[in-house]
Amino acid sequence: MADVSEFAGKLADPSRLTNIPRLLTEYFTSRPDMAVPAQRVAFGTSGHRGTAFDSVFTETHILAIAQAICLYRAKAGIDGPLFLGKDTHALSEAAFATAVEVFAANGVELVIDETLGYTPTPVISHAILTYNKGRTAGFADGIAITPSHNPAEDGGFKYNPPNGGPADTDVTGWMEKTANALIEDGLRDVKRIPLQRAMKAPNVRRYDFTTPYVADLENVLDLEAIRAAGLRIGVDPLGGAGLPYWAPIAERYRLDITVVNETVDPTFRFMTADWDGKLRMDCSSPWAMAPLIGLKDRFDIAFANDPDADRHGIVTPTAGLMNPNHYLTASIAYLYTHRPGWKGTPAIGKTIVSSSSVDRVAAKLGLSVMEVPVGFKWFVDGLIAGDLGFVGEESAGASFLRKTGEVWTTDKDGLIPALLAAEMTAITGKDPGELYADLTREIGAPIYARVDAAATPEQKAVLKKLSADQIPGDTLAGEPIVDRLTHAPGNGAAFGGVKVTTENGWFAARPSGTENVYKIYAESFIDEEHLQRIQSEAKEIVSAALGAG
């Protein structure tokens, strides 16, 4: 990681906060220049994202994307309800209004929150799946308006098809192409009606998202065990969409939950700055999580979510803020020994850059692992079929099956891993930090890190298309190279980079989708010095491959 900012871990000076009125003005007045690639509609792994300040996320973009979704639904024969949710970013509210105008005008059966409040991403996935269960026609789909943990000036717009998970590239590629064509044609084919009329349209209805989701939680977690243990639980929603869910959860299941910060403010002025000085609601960052970490001794377990509640951050009295990889490993070891209702032994799903501690605990338990490229979409089919019991990403995103072995969500759910930390503590008498420490005595204690290295757009393109035989050398940090990968072993899909492994370490290098850098993920099961050798040699190996390319 680059040098840590002097502002990291501190509340932002008011002068550094996002100017929300100016941001919203840019959203409604700025027009993208379609000759600039960065200003065109572009779907990444989590939808179209950007800021109005750069003319990347504007009303023009959302009008076109919403109309493209309407056209796609007609093309794909999707005619059930479309569940629309938003998080607490300022641009989410603006994009919500724009989208409602378009969907109402197109006659889409649109379902929005009954109070016009906030809806976590996993609740949208849960609503889609529960509505579609047992149906043969009239399938529902959904949209989460969120840039996840990104800074206050960002917006995001993500489509989830009837399988409830993130849309695959065949879907998003069609929407992207269609939306850009609509913009280039001056939005002439976009249908919209004024917001006041749209909100009263017969095809727009309000719905209680909260109650069905909260009532169903007992089917995925042992909440009675948490209540019986009398655990003191601390929650920081980080000003996000999860906030209105914690009081109903506490009331229904009689849990001792304290929400330590109930503030919702689109500037996120209550956040402490991340490592680079930006206000980023990253619940896996020790700088962003500094306030909750400071309260760790007040609670038996504490946790946080990002603004759309699809990520989790776990704080324990013994370990403080847990590294996401450590928590995923401890969760797997616990779940696969405490879910007798799971059919057979469903595999574990992990991304190519997640810790090898997952593989080691899987081997210990006799479980198989499906390793896939970065992106939750790769887990969708396995979760629906019940072939994957637990899936997780190194960036603190996860989901797992109901106690019966049936699908819960096919998108990341930050709420259930958070509550699982309380279940683990209640059942075992040890917090997840202690459980992970116990595991490391058997599987080893890895050291994991990510660094960024400069790369030109041309070099990034080369890295994305490398083949395994272009990776030189026979050793990495003194150990023989066991494998060179450019395709994920779990499904054979290219992951847009390279991964090199040895017996006690590995690195993976992938180009950034938004910056002129490539990311090096590395892990050592030996020591810090070994990790640094892996990182240094990784840069040399990748540089040589880029030079040859």
TrEMBL record:
<feature type="domain" description="Alpha-D-phosphohexomutase C-terminal">
    <location>
        <begin position="496"/>
        <end position="538"/>
    </location>
</feature>
<dbReference type="InterPro" id="IPR005843">
    <property type="entry name" value="A-D-PHexomutase_C"/>
</dbReference>
<dbReference type="Pfam" id="PF02879">
    <property type="entry name" value="PGM_PMM_II"/>
</dbReference>
<dbReference type="Pfam" id="PF00408">
    <property type="entry name" value="PGM_PMM_IV"/>
</dbReference>
<dbReference type="InterPro" id="IPR005845">
    <property type="entry name" value="A-D-PHexomutase_a/b/a-II"/>
</dbReference>
<dbReference type="InterPro" id="IPR005852">
    <property type="entry name" value="PGM_a-D-Glc-sp"/>
</dbReference>
<feature type="domain" description="Alpha-D-phosphohexomutase alpha/beta/alpha">
    <location>
        <begin position="323"/>
        <end position="440"/>
    </location>
</feature>
<keyword id="KW-0479">Metal-binding</keyword>
<dbReference type="Pfam" id="PF02880">
    <property type="entry name" value="PGM_PMM_III"/>
</dbReference>
<dbReference type="InterPro" id="IPR016055">
    <property type="entry name" value="A-D-PHexomutase_a/b/a-I/II/III"/>
</dbReference>
<protein>
    <recommendedName>
        <fullName>Phosphoglucomutase</fullName>
        <ecNumber>5.4.2.2</ecNumber>
    </recommendedName>
</protein>
<dbReference type="InterPro" id="IPR005846">
    <property type="entry name" value="A-D-PHexomutase_a/b/a-III"/>
</dbReference>
<dbReference type="InterPro" id="IPR036900">
    <property type="entry name" value="A-D-PHexomutase_C_sf"/>
</dbReference>
<dbReference type="InterPro" id="IPR016066">
    <property type="entry name" value="A-D-PHexomutase_CS"/>
</dbReference>
<keyword id="KW-0597">Phosphoprotein</keyword>
<keyword id="KW-0413">Isomerase</keyword>
<dbReference type="Pfam" id="PF02878">
    <property type="entry name" value="PGM_PMM_I"/>
</dbReference>
<feature type="domain" description="Alpha-D-phosphohexomutase alpha/beta/alpha">
    <location>
        <begin position="41"/>
        <end position="180"/>
    </location>
</feature>
<feature type="domain" description="Alpha-D-phosphohexomutase alpha/beta/alpha">
    <location>
        <begin position="212"/>
        <end position="317"/>
    </location>
</feature>
<dbReference type="GO" id="GO:0004614">
    <property type="term" value="F:phosphoglucomutase activity"/>
</dbReference>
<dbReference type="InterPro" id="IPR005844">
    <property type="entry name" value="A-D-PHexomutase_a/b/a-I"/>
</dbReference>
<comment type="similarity">
    <text>Belongs to the phosphohexose mutase family.</text>
</comment>
<keyword id="KW-0460">Magnesium</keyword>
